[in-house]
């Protein structure tokens, strides 16, 4: 295949004596440190990375650029001898397989970065400072050094940087369950316990590090003297009434059920707190509608309807609908309006990703009630991390099965392993769920969270062949499988998450209940310390052991998984001082800036 690049100005990258020396370059990663959290989530998606780095324009680097420009303009002005041009094009044969056009300047050779180096070496570069500076990076991912010793009550690994709900593979947050619905391996959407646990753990971690949220209570039924609700028609009303069940005053409302009628309207004009929470009880079917103004100029207003129905999400025109179930008894509801809006937009305009930015929420204009029922504590806050955390914890308690597991109801095909049929368990789900439940238990002291976490260890004791997740390496080392494949796959990151969960549980459970978690944790740590070297290539890490169990090519971890491995090992090194954990984490960190294990 011949691919010759001929451009007037094209990017060159210094190639010192052949191509081998790439590894000796490393640059500051500072620029990637200022990514916002949202960016961070975006950059997890490899397609975004490709966009970020694959810049079509191309230029020369710094000083050389200036020199070359000066020289070439001299050349032009003087219309001088072409021999004065300081470089010549040079055809470069790559492994005798194809050719690339480079440039020769004296005895130095330059090859195009974007047209060749980047792909060939899987490295990353971009022009900054008005194209006056070139940033070269060996990897695109990032390490979060732990801040002191890990504790089961503190932030979970580096999850304060996670933003689960904005991911494309989250279809929306269910109005009934209050947790995300995944489309990662099934377009129809399914509840994925790992995603739900990560959603809860990220909100818990953010809750711990962020300032107190700003909160405005608009209505709590206490004072109806200066009624701000607009109601039309003699049959409709909103009034304050005492509620015996909860022993306080609440708002009773009665309006037509149909959205075609005006309903009861409350003007908010809320321009900073976009998380809505309220207590609700319907007598008939009904809905709460939020009217949203966006940042896009001259864009229409959008309605988000939270309606008594089982439909997950539906959108048409400027209307977005979330089913919230029938709500015939008092229940609390918390909604992240910007996320609900974005997910609705994605349904309305599936192909237009850029729209999401332009159409960010600027203001919540009003809320409107339809139907007959009661409402209390209508509140808008800047964030609602704890509510989101408890939605996840309660989902886990409600949906745990009799084996103590959270079966995953979607087919999963890992590489060339046989597919896992719907209903499989994952040690990663069990582990992250345990980490979430232990935190919920610590905060609330509610027994149900502790009991659920304890039950969750059962699945780790059942062999993969028997429907569990336990594998044994070389008849010796016990492993908890993220994917309980046959033969075993030994996925590293999922295994370590299960160990972190076990550590959390054995640490917080009362001594008479912690034995099982303690035993499973110890077994797992022994396996990890013995098997960790199998995941080291000398210049990166490996995702699983398919090269051992299937005899196929090794499955190298891409950089975000590699950095997850390191973040996990750094966490474990704060609770276990075995040198292999710390040393491996350090060596693997070096791989991210181009260092490699020595060769013979
Ligand atoms: C709500 O609507 C559904 C579907 O139309 C109906 O089956 C149900 O009985 C209604 N519930 C109430 C309380 O009116
Ligand atoms: C509204 O909030 C108050 C204060 O937290 C609480 O006592 C009351 O029960 C809440 N109302 C409902 C309907 O849950």
Automatic annotation (TrEMBL):
<protein>
    <recommendedName>
        <fullName>heparosan-N-sulfate-glucuronate 5-epimerase</fullName>
        <ecNumber>5.1.3.17</ecNumber>
    </recommendedName>
</protein>
<dbReference type="GO" id="GO:0015012">
    <property type="term" value="P:heparan sulfate proteoglycan biosynthetic process"/>
</dbReference>
<keyword id="KW-0812">Transmembrane</keyword>
<dbReference type="GO" id="GO:0047464">
    <property type="term" value="F:heparosan-N-sulfate-glucuronate 5-epimerase activity"/>
</dbReference>
<dbReference type="GO" id="GO:0030210">
    <property type="term" value="P:heparin proteoglycan biosynthetic process"/>
</dbReference>
<keyword id="KW-0472">Membrane</keyword>
<feature type="domain" description="D-glucuronyl C5-epimerase beta-sandwich">
    <location>
        <begin position="248"/>
        <end position="371"/>
    </location>
</feature>
<comment type="pathway">
    <text>Glycan metabolism; heparan sulfate biosynthesis.</text>
</comment>
<dbReference type="InterPro" id="IPR039721">
    <property type="entry name" value="C5-epimerase"/>
</dbReference>
<dbReference type="GO" id="GO:0005794">
    <property type="term" value="C:Golgi apparatus"/>
</dbReference>
<comment type="similarity">
    <text>Belongs to the D-glucuronyl C5-epimerase family.</text>
</comment>
<dbReference type="Pfam" id="PF21174">
    <property type="entry name" value="Glce_b_sandwich"/>
</dbReference>
<dbReference type="InterPro" id="IPR010598">
    <property type="entry name" value="C5-epim_C"/>
</dbReference>
<comment type="pathway">
    <text>Glycan metabolism; heparin biosynthesis.</text>
</comment>
<keyword id="KW-0413">Isomerase</keyword>
<keyword id="KW-0735">Signal-anchor</keyword>
<keyword id="KW-1133">Transmembrane helix</keyword>
<dbReference type="Pfam" id="PF06662">
    <property type="entry name" value="C5-epim_C"/>
</dbReference>
<dbReference type="InterPro" id="IPR059154">
    <property type="entry name" value="Glce_b_sandwich"/>
</dbReference>
<feature type="domain" description="D-glucuronyl C5-epimerase C-terminal">
    <location>
        <begin position="400"/>
        <end position="589"/>
    </location>
</feature>
